[in-house]
Every structure is written in C-alpha cells, then in structure tokens.
Amino acid sequence: xxxxxxxGGGVVQPGGSLTLSCAASGxxxxxxxxxxxxxxxxxxxxxxxxxxYDGSNKYYADxxxxxxxxxxxxxxxxxxxxxxxxxxxxxxxxxxxxxxxVVGPEFDSWGQGTLVTVSS
Amino acid sequence: xxxxxxxxxxLPVTLGQPASISCRSxxxxxxxxGNTYLNWFQQRPGQSPRRLIYKVSNRDSGVPDRFSGxxxxxxxxxxxxxxxxxxxxxxxxxxxxxxxPVTFGGGTKVEIK
Lengths: 120, 113
Fold this sequence. Notes:
The structure holds 2 protein chains of 2 kinds. Chain A is built from no helices and 11 strands. Chain A has strands at residues 3-7, 10-12, 18-25, 33-39, 45-51, 58-60, 68-73, 78-83, 92-99, 107-110, 114-118. In chain A, strands 2, 4, 5, 6, 9, 10 and 11 form a 7-stranded mixed sheet that branches. A 4-stranded antiparallel sheet of chain A has the order 1-3-8-7, with no helix packed on it. Chain B has no helices and 11 strands. In chain B, a hairpin with a 6-residue loop joins strand 4 (38-43) and strand 5 (50-54). In chain B, the strands form 2 sheets. In chain B, strands 2, 4, 5, 6, 9, 10 and 11 form a 7-stranded mixed sheet that branches. Chain B has a 4-stranded antiparallel sheet with strand order 1-3-8-7, with no helix packed on it. Helices cover 0% and strands 48% of the residues of chain B. The chains are: A mainly beta, B mainly beta. The A-B interface holds A 35, 37, 44-47, 50, 59-62, 95, 101, 103-108, 110-113 and B 31, 33, 35, 37, 39, 41, 48-51, 54-55, 60, 90, 92, 94, 96-97, 99-107.
C-alpha cells in the first residue's frame, strides 16, 4: 500500500534552516509528482510547493518563494523540502502529498506530517 | 489566485440527518481539457486529510456512498446523506484547475449536535 513518511521537523530559530524528507514506498516513486502542503496549528491547509514526476518543473507558493526548495531523489524514493530563512509564520505541520493527476493536481495520498516550529 | 470560499464555517448535525457544505470559487473551475479539478477532503481529528471526492463528483475508493459531490463553474456542494459519528471532522474543498497555486477553502467543521 502507498506509504509516505515525513521526517526532519523540529524546533528552529527564526532565520534558521531545516530540511524535511518524505520517504515513499508501496508504489513506483518516479512515476508521480509530489507536493508539500502545510497546516499551521489550528488552521487550514496551505499549499507550499510542487515538483513534477521527472523533476522538470517546480512551483512554489509566493509565501515561500526564494526561501524553500523542493527536490527529489528517485534512487532513494525520497522527496525533500529545504527550508531557509525560516520565519515564525512557517510554523506548521508539513505534509507530503502524492499527485496522481496528469493535468490538474489530484492529491490521492497524504503522509502523517512532520511538525516545524520556528521560535526563539 | 483563485479564492475558495466555504460555508458554513461550522455545521452541527443530528446523527442520521443530512448535511451540506458549499464551496464557491472566485472564477470558473472548468478546465479547457473538459475536466473540473475540484476535490473534497475530510480531516478527522488528529488525522491527515483524506480525499473523498475528485473532479467534482467522483468518489474515492472506500468512501461511503452517503458522500456525494456536485456542482459546476464556480459553485460546488458536498453532501452527506445521513451523518454518522465517524463523519465528525473538518472538510476542505480544493481547486487544481488554475494552478499554481493550488488553493483550498477555509474548511467546514462538522460536529454532532
């Protein structure tokens, strides 16, 4: 069965950096695009970033553009999110999401999330 | 960016009674390929979101048939024909027609009266 397991979250000071990982299993990783979606404590869902199945295209929310980088390593079946210049407003649970869509994004599987807390 | 507006914010429902959630988009979600990329997700307390409905009205595998989606253009609805205790949670609509960015509605909290 499809499994997405995020890791790498933690407490970091404002201005600091963190790299999140998402280990995938149960399917052919290289066939799918992926997204990161976050949820601030007690708040709704916010899309963060996306990467195509072949890594050819990457997209970011305006709120993270220039600070976050999405990448993938198909040899390790792993998705990454490099987060720099972190701010208090980046505090959230970060979900890794599989995209089964061909044209429009279709989020069929979500991980359990990894919590990032930005605080001094 | 497409703004997704859900109503109501909170929906107290009696067990066995129907429930309806509205989602409106700031522009039509009809794609030039003929599809409408409007999805519904359920997030139970303490859990990750789970997709219920994709492309307006297609139910995901394992989703009870008491859940149904409808709508077109800018107006969409998620209906629960008879609410059960396990349906408690927050429901989100999401559009993927005009992306990036993908945008979500603010959520509707379904609770039992």
